[in-house]
Specification:
Mean pLDDT is 87; it is low at 1-43 and 47-80. Helix 3 (119-128) packs across helix 14 (488-503) and helix 13 (454-468) crosses helix 14. The radius of gyration is 22 Å and the shape is globular. By secondary structure, the chain is α/β, with parallel strands linked by helices. A hairpin with a 6-residue loop joins strand 11 and strand 12. It has helices at residues 60-63, 88-97, 119-128, 150-156, 255-268, 304-313, 315-340, 364-370, 372-385, 402-408, 425-432, 448-451, 454-468, 488-503; strands spanning 2-5, 32-40, 43-52, 70-72, 78-85, 136-140, 145-146, 160-163, 178-182, 185-189, 195-197, 204-206, 218-220, 228-229, 274-277, 346-350, 389-393, 412-414, 437-439, 474-475.
Length: 505
């Protein structure tokens, strides 16, 4: 059985601080190690064995059910064995990630903020499947995504469980749920989900950190379905930019935050489903994050248009921001790994979009110069020290960047927007089979899912599964989140079609 990448202990940050505007060469991909399936009474584990640079006690005793991970040997010639308890659902995801044909096409909905379902559709699905009537929790308030509870996860046949982190884009944590009227639908929101109505427009305004004395940081148009960030950029001197001003939202975790992250990941790590974690903010220029909607009074470049201009006019400043984001991110990931070990299967790396409907936000040359070295540094640490797979979201016509992403160490791309230019499913699979996992692409959410007939939904899902599932490397999900007002009959037809395809195997 082909193993996943073996963790090696490397305590130093990847790469020294570079001079302004310079980019290091991308690191070589680590070699894959041999592994096999280990059977133990009443349990089943995957194991990986290989060299590590120095002896260490692994932390899988805390990070996974079953026996602890072991590390032994002298400096430079130690051996490490990684064991992970799995059930059938988790195994099919792991098989797909390893580019082996799984028993069924694995399914994800709700694993992260770009594979979710709008709260109104979650409520409709609960009714459709005859589940207990209760308000849906808003787990991601920016896009108003609904939490998919265990009963709905089971009804839909979902093989992944998400661990998103307790913070939200608006700077508050989800806690102490309370009712809120969302266009006539009663939902549950965090105690710190604080809003007001714009007296002139009727729009809903939301406040950072729940602080109603601050300027609102998000706006939902009257009768709308999600929030847009409000640009609150202060006056700046572009000749005297301080990268630290754009780093306020990036910080080392406190012990309390680490305790919460550990508790959430270990609670998800039952062995039943693959664990998809997004505990650390390593978004490199993600325009959803640039405005600083979670900050009370954001400093630095916070206007989206000015941010894009900055990548062209002052790339040295952008490099310094990205460098610190990765350094802080790795420091936090190291602390998380010390606590949870290999309990995580998939790590959300970044949600920056590089594609548009017909073109791209930048050239491949610019990507390779400005983004790739930082992705490479982050992925190098992940692959050298963990068995986690790296997940990169980028909407639109993004195929031109895939070779560079593979070189940087990205394992998975999402949402696989086949409706964009140059994103033909057959071409993608033929070109990247065995090298890139496609997490998404299962159904077009711009046309077919919201506006097609159930028969058209079924046809497209069966076709996409047929193409993308060859030799693994595919996790079924819609192309980005399922949007509000999508007919519940079409969503059910999508799920039924996946089950139909899997029934043929």
């Amino acid at each position: 059985m082909e193993a996943r990448r073996l963790p090696q202990d490397r305590d130093s940050m990847p790469g020294a601080r570079r001079s302004a505007g310079r980019s290091p060469a991308p690191p070589a991909a680590p070699a894959r190690q041999a592994g096999h399936r280990l059977q133990m009474p009443g349990k089943q584990y995957y194991t990986w064995t290989g060299d590590v640079r120095s002896p260490r006690r692994q932390s899988s005793a805390r990070g996974a059910k079953g026996p602890p991970t072991l590390g032994a040997g002298a400096e430079g010639d130690g051996q490490v064995t990684v064991q992970k308890e799995i059930g059938p659902r988790r195994q099919r995801v792991l098989d797909a990630l390893a580019h082996r044909t799984p028993d069924q096409v694995p399914v994800d909905f709700g694993g992260c903020a770009t594979t979710g379902i709008h709260a109104s559709c979650v409520a409709a699905l609960r009714d459709y499947y005859g589940l207990e009537k209760r308000p849906v929790k808003i787990c991601e308030p920016f896009q108003m995504l609904g939490l998919i509870d265990d009963d709905l996860r089971e009804a839909m046949g979902i093989d992944v469980i998400g661990v998103p982190g307790r913070g939200t884009i608006f700077g508050f944590e989800n806690h102490d749920w309370r009712p809120w009227n969302f266009n006539g639908l009663e939902v549950l929101v965090s105690e710190d989900f604080r809003t007001a109505t714009d007296p002139e427009t009727g729009d809903t305004l939301i406040y950072p950190k729940g602080d109603t004395t601050a300027r609102p940081s998000g706006r939902m148009p009257k009768g709308g379905f999600f929030f847009d960030a409000i640009i609150r950029q202060q006056q700046i001197d572009t000749d005297r930019l301080d990268p630290e001003d754009n780093l306020e939202e990036y910080a080392l975790f406190t012990d309390r935050q680490l305790d919460d992250i550990e508790a959430d990941i270990l609670a998800a790590n039952t062995g039943e489903r693959a664990v998809f974690a997004a505990p650390v903010n390593t978004g490199l220029g993600d325009i959803a994050l640039v405005p600083g909607a979670g900050l009370t009074d954001p400093r630095g470049v916070r206007d989206v248009a000015e941010w894009y201009m900055l990548t062209r006019s002052q790339p040295d400043v952008v490099h310094r921001i990205f460098e610190r984001v990765v350094e802080i991110g790795i420091a936090n990931l190291r602390k998380i790994h010390e606590r949870v070990g290999e309990a995580i299967d998939v790590l959300y790396v970044c949600g920056t979009d590089f594609g548009t409907q017909r073109s791209a936000f930048c050239s491949v040359k610019t990507f390779d110069r400005l983004w790739k070295p930082h992705y490479a540094g982050l992925c190098r640490w992940v692959h050298a020290n963990t068995t986690w797979k790296t997940f990169k979201h980028t909407c639109g016509s993004s195929e031109r960047f895939f070779e560079s992403m593979i070189d940087a160490g990205i394992d998975i791309v999402n949402p696989v927007q086949c409706s964009a230019a140059g994103m033909d499913p057959r071409m993608l699979k033929d070109k990247y089979k065995g090298r890139l996992v496609f997490w998404g692409g299962g159904i077009d959410t711009q046309h077919t899912l919201p506006f097609g007939a159930p028969a058209e939904v079924r046809e497209q899902v069966l076709e996409r599964c047929e193409i993308f599932s060859e030799q693994g490397g595919f996790v079924f999900n819609s192309i980005h989140n399922v949007q509000a007002n999508t007919p519940v009959g079409n969503i059910a037809a999508m799920i039924d079609a996946v089950k139909e395809f899997n029934g043929r195997r």
